[in-house]
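new request in #modeling-help
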Amino acid sequence: MVEQLETRLDVIFRALGDHTRRAMLERLASGEQTVTELAAPCRMSLAAASKHVQTLERAGLVKRTVRGRIHYVRIDPRPLARADHWLRGYQKLWDTRIERLVQLLRHPDNEPDHTK
Amino acid sequence: MVEQLETRLDVIFRALGDHTRRAMLERLASGEQTVTELAAPCRMSLAAASKHVQTLERAGLVKRTVRGRIHYVRIDPRPLARADHWLRGYQKLWDTRIERLVQLLRHPDNEPDHTK
């Protein structure tokens, strides 16, 4: 079960590791689009766009519906939530860094203030 | 500038798209470790572990310090914060889904309650 989840996260993060696919998700956040519409602003062939959509599909990030000859694509935000859940486990680490920075800016002698 | 950020995010998400590297980050969250220590629980060669550390280094997720013959690795949470920042842009999408689910569970007739 844990292994399955880990494999799933591998596929999700890898799918997100491409700016064209992230740009597609950004556009899909506003609503369903056809593969042709998704391909247009990227100046890429329909075949290339379709390949990216397939990668997003495998990661569960989008769902494709075929009506007639047209392929409609819509976002499924659940895998994004899963990836975010993993990252938030580390939030404490970067929050602590910001706190330290604020401390340093408040106290130019670079010593944290223990009097408060 | 935007392009640089996009390339950076590509490298970060791809580095996270491997469960061995995520497991390494999980261990590094508790503190600095040597490459040998990182390799041990993964039952992998030092060379294989070093390659994973290199991928994490390229993404800026870890910093390596060499003292004598020993390579120490520590986590840098800033790229994690960057990836999380991107994902949070979509939080509204999954939050809305959860809200809809709660509505459905509250109202077994599957109709949202407009009286409240």
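bot summary: Chain B touches chain A through 32 residues (CB under 8 Å).
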